[in-house]
Amino acid sequence: AQSVTQLDSQVPVFEEAPVELRCNYSSSVSVYLFWYVQYPNQGLQLLLKYLSGSTLVKGINGFEAEFNKSQTSFHLRKPSVHISDTAEYFCAVSGPGGFKTIFGAGTRLFVKA
Amino acid sequence: KAGVTQTPRYLIKTRGQQVTLSCSPISGHRSVSWYQQTPGQGLQFLFEYFSETQRNKGNFPGRFSGRQFSNSRSEMNVSTLELGDSALYLCASSLGDSFYEQYFGPGTRLTVT
Fold first, then answer.
1. Shortest CB distance from B56 goes to which of A44, A100, A104?
2. B100 close to B29: Cβ distance less than 8 angstroms
3. Does the distance separating the beta carbons of B106 and A42 come in below 8 Å?
């Protein structure tokens, strides 16, 4: 069975500081990995995805993530955050052949001025 | 291209009633998934429909059901509502291939009193 663990429920950070949101997954088969962002009162928006190939994936809004197969991790990073990045971030895993998408519990990023 | 739309956006029902939520996917998308989002349980997968057939199902009681029409629009129904069904219900559409990159609607906020 697949599962996703987001290691931090809340991450407070000052504006223009770097941030890393941690995600670990478990799966017995090949997976596809995703990060989504949810702003208040909105649905989820895809930030980036890892399907195959380069382990460093770049997404929208200056975010990037690195797939580490040996550590089964897919941490999300941004070198300099803005107030507007305040939102909830979800790591997700899915696989081929009909696997459903499993979401982590979410990490609430709070950017302070 | 228009995004995923969900109607209604807000709904208040009383215990014991039933409710139907609607989701219109992005044009050309054949897969529609439904999720329940609550503060305590996070994002939980309800079910996924592809070409009018339920392809995947989460661990929800039979009171939760859905269907998909030939134009890919989907509805989900909850019968005999309970207080615990109060949640944000999110619909997501995708092309339906093995990548399962999903595009989310804004959600329907259901309050059961």
1. A100
2. no
3. yes
